[in-house]
């Protein structure tokens, strides 16, 4: 039997305790730090906004079409062959500019006839004037009868009337000859050519269409309860092919169908950027209400879903919402948020560009 001294036994016991302590220490250090303390999620970088009730102007939106303020299908009163069309579609024209020329050579001969008639009438008028003066002198000297005097005066009146008729014929011919030069009735844009050189022009047949698009008339239809808030001359918001503009109410007339009315509004278009025939929307004021609005910059998208980032209890959460009326900078929230909540307007780099904004 082997015997171990007490001193050596004590040393072995101490070494064993030390080894056990190292093993236990190693086992204790295997627990991860994140299990000891939960890490907080990172907040979205941006500006916070506390939601509150806001006064919102309510509107009724009606769709329609933009029409030129002036439009003319230019024609002639003269029958003849078109010799020239001086404009193309899209050309800008000024008032009185010649657009189409009609062959009027047959009027030249008639003009010579009229000139000859005027010359003959003037000669007859001079002769009748002299004749009447001579008989007036003889009558005063009792050398001519009253009947001779009256006949001379009648001849003079007839000669004056003949000269006036000849001159009226010349004026009429000048008017007819002016129809050979078809002119623009106002400044505008040529939108259609209906004739080319060689075309036979008949009175009233359209030759060129001209539109004045420096201003446009926006025409929509709205029910009676909507138009009660409108007055002539009132400024209202409008969109023309997505472009926001201000329109001036021109007039409100019954549409002739049901309880509907036609609303006409005028917009300035001096640069010609907006085209006649464009789709338009008129926003007609209907009073005010209260609700929650958020900046467009606070909106984030994921496909068809629209949401905002809500901050609560030190954390951010994306929440989907439903939008109502929108302006150029803000949107009404009809569902998904309540007053007092805090949202984040994220910095541009915080969310993907495809999901930020509207």
Automatic annotation (TrEMBL):
Signal peptide start and end residues: 1-25
GO terms for cellular component: efflux pump complex
Keyword match Signal: yes
Keywords assigned by UniProt, alphabetized: Signal
A molecular function (GO) term: efflux transmembrane transporter activity
Record-linked PROSITE patterns: PROKAR_LIPOPROTEIN
One Pfam family this sequence matches: BSH_CzcB
Family listed: Belongs to the membrane fusion protein (MFP) (TC 8.A.1) family.
NCBIfam families xref list: RND_mfp
PANTHER family documented for this protein: HLYD FAMILY OF SECRETION PROTEINS, MULTIDRUG RESISTANCE PROTEIN MDTA
UniProt name for this protein: CzcB-like barrel-sandwich hybrid domain-containing protein
Organism expressing this protein natively: Gemmatimonas phototrophica
